[in-house]
Amino acid sequence: MTPAVSSPAVLHQAGRVVTGAGCLLQLPGLIASWKPERLLLVVGRAVTPDSPVHALHAALTAAGIDVLLLDPVPPEPEVADVDAVLAAARQAGPVDLVVGVGGGSAIDVAKAVAVLLAHPVSVRELLSGTPVPGRGLPTVMVPTTAGTGAEATPNSIILVPQDALKVGIVSPHLLPDLVLLDPLLTLTLPPAVTAHTGIDALCHAIECYTSKKANLFSDLYGLEAIRLISRSIRRAFADGQDVAARQDMLLGSYYGGVCIATSSTTAVHALAYPLGGRYRVPHGLSNAMLLPAIMAYNCVGNEARFAAMARAMDLPVAGLSDAQATTLFVQALARLNADLGITTRLSDLGVTEADLDALVDGASKVTRLLDNNPRPMGRDDMRALYAAVL
């Protein structure tokens, strides 16, 4: 079969990526050539007193590097949270490196603060569309969830309360200089967090692979992310100490983030953002609840790609048509939610039918993602999709 000719595509990635159990403690040596004197360590609330992060702190101090450790970043960070970290860092004195350790919240704040410390611009300006003026301070990102893939993306997602919506700062200037993928940091994730963040990672791969901007890069990384996550998410959920499963999940999450950097997500994320903004529903849970219904909508006319994803999930599709394989794939997504104990009804989270129009209003503003959806989606379609999971 003659291969198709791809449209031009660009792959943006972190400068270096190091993976493997225990790689976190290699950080002092990995940054030695930068000769940092003082670094800002941004952490999430899940970093506990027995976390390896504290061993990292000691190792950095032993290497002669002063560490500024601030209060943990809350989940679903707002503009005020970014401003608070920025103000505390400025008050404490100059830093020449920013390290983010945590889930997507800590990493997104760390990426934004690294730019804000280096340029005379505010987070509000960046969220309003002012271009990121250039690279910020050097950055190292260390995810403790698998997950958001934030360590691989050129995005920083921040909640704007007055709009009840999450907004993205998007620029290649946000890509980290170094990423460490250490599965040992994810062993203590509770099952529910493992499920929510894991489905979020799966969403990234699926949405990017089926998006209008899909390309050779997102095809490669997307299918591999689907393969890794689908084979290991149930194992990681059932046994948090399964290091091999945790490593699959962390690598799959990173690959999903790479997909975002080259092709971007679509309607699942667009419709999920108002749920986080209005109801503070965890981002991964919002995506998980919407994923099966939106994929059932998006698959129309796109069956060949959905069949390829079914094969990546190792579903029994031999001898089936693309349409039949697509049906199995959508069913498998719903079954995965059930196996992971994920709430499937928005009403369980306090959403009522009277809220649907406001949710549609919020989702309609996320044109960057809706325009990338493989199938056109109008307001009536969005309302019907919200209603389907009400």
From TrEMBL:
Q: What are the names of the required cofactors?
A: Fe cation
Q: Where is the Fe-containing alcohol dehydrogenase-like C-terminal domain?
A: 194-389
Q: Name one Pfam family in it.
A: Fe-ADH
| Keyword Flavoprotein carried by entry | no
GO terms for molecular function, please? alcohol dehydrogenase (NAD+) activity; metal ion binding
Pinpoint the Alcohol dehydrogenase iron-type/glycerol dehydrogenase GldA domain residues. 16-183
- SUPFAM superfamilies reported for this sequence: Dehydroquinate synthase-like
Stated name of the protein: Alcohol dehydrogenase class IV
Q: Which InterPro entries match?
A: ADH_Fe/GldA, ADH_Fe_C, ADH_Fe_CS, Alcohol_dehydrogenase_Fe
The entry assigns this protein to a family as follows:
Belongs to the iron-containing alcohol dehydrogenase family.
Q: Which keywords describe this protein according to UniProt?
A: NAD, Oxidoreductase
